[in-house]
Design goal:
This protein is α/β, with parallel strands linked by helices. 39% of the residues lie in helices and 18% in strands. The chain is built from six helices and seven strands; from the N terminus they run αβαβαβαβαβββα. A five-stranded parallel beta sheet has the order 2-1-3-4-5, sandwiched between helices. A two-stranded antiparallel sheet has the order 6-7. Helix 2 crosses helix 6. The chain is globular. The relative contact order is 0.13.
Length: 232
């Protein structure tokens, strides 16, 4: 077999991962984590489709074009949303990387799900179109790793994202990885509801914090890739 034929065969059989970035700044830790995740997936043999929602100008607001007739699951969608639907269909794995806002996802990511994971496409059929796909949610939290709030935050995200979205849409496996300590100034809420903000870290200490964050990201991605779906 020629090198060209071998390369073409690999391209046809390579698994695809759609990595979705939900942040407005390219210099954010969220964007860094998304790029790091994409690199890990490529190393694992995936072809990566990197979807930066803000950079691509995605409008998270639902509109009439994407919901002209709610009861018709065969309804047409806007060209923009149909292009995003195809990117989801083409992916074997979908990874959403986002900052945790109010123990949930940002409006940018929620709006993408609202518009793209629409009735008739992501759900509402006896045979789900997204069946067999795998989903990883990487949520960056400002809370510190020793803050008791992180346990409840993890539970809320798992219920909303895995149970309420991924499994509802037929995904075979969904995992939520909460990544705390995302702020350069540690913060937590005390028993009286006061926000306690620590000193900002810099220099070698900040580099060590980033290295630890990258290590936990790698652990979450590798754990997700090796996890087996639980039989119903």
């Amino acid at each position: 077999m020629s090198h060209r034929s071998s390369a073409a065969k690999t391209a046809r059989t390579a698994r695809t991962a759609l990595v979705v970035i939900a942040h407005h700044r390219t210099d954010s830790l969220t964007a860094h984590t998304a790029r790091r995740t994409a690199a890990l997936l490529e190393t694992a043999g995936y072809r990566v489709d990197l979807l930066d929602l803000h950079a691509e100008g995605f409008d998270p607001r639902m509109n009439v074009a994407d919901q002209p007739d709610w009861g018709n699951r065969e309804k047409p969608y806007s060209d923009e949303v149909q292009a995003h639907m195809q990117r989801v269909l083409d992916a074997d794995v979908v990874v959403a990387v986002f900052p945790v806002y109010w123990q949930s996802v940002p409006a940018l990511l929620k709006g993408w799900i609202d518009r793209v994971w629409n009735y008739g496409f992501a759900y509402g059929r006896s045979k789900p179109r997204l069946a067999g796909k795998r989903m990883l949610w990487l949520g960056l939290a400002g809370a510190t790793s020793d803050d008791p709030i992180t346990e409840g935050m993890q539970a809320v995200l798992e219920t909303n994202l895995s149970e309420g979205i991924a499994y509802y849409c037929g995904f075979s496996y969904s995992s939520v990885a909460l990544l705390p300590d995302a702020e350069d100034r540690p913060q937590r809420i005390d028993a009286e509801g006061n926000l306690l903000i620590g000193d900002a870290v810099a220099g070698a200490e900040r580099e060590a914090q980033y290295a630890e964050f990258d290590r936990r990201t790698r652990k979450a991605v590798e754990g997700f890739l090796t996890a087996e779906p639980v039989a119903a």
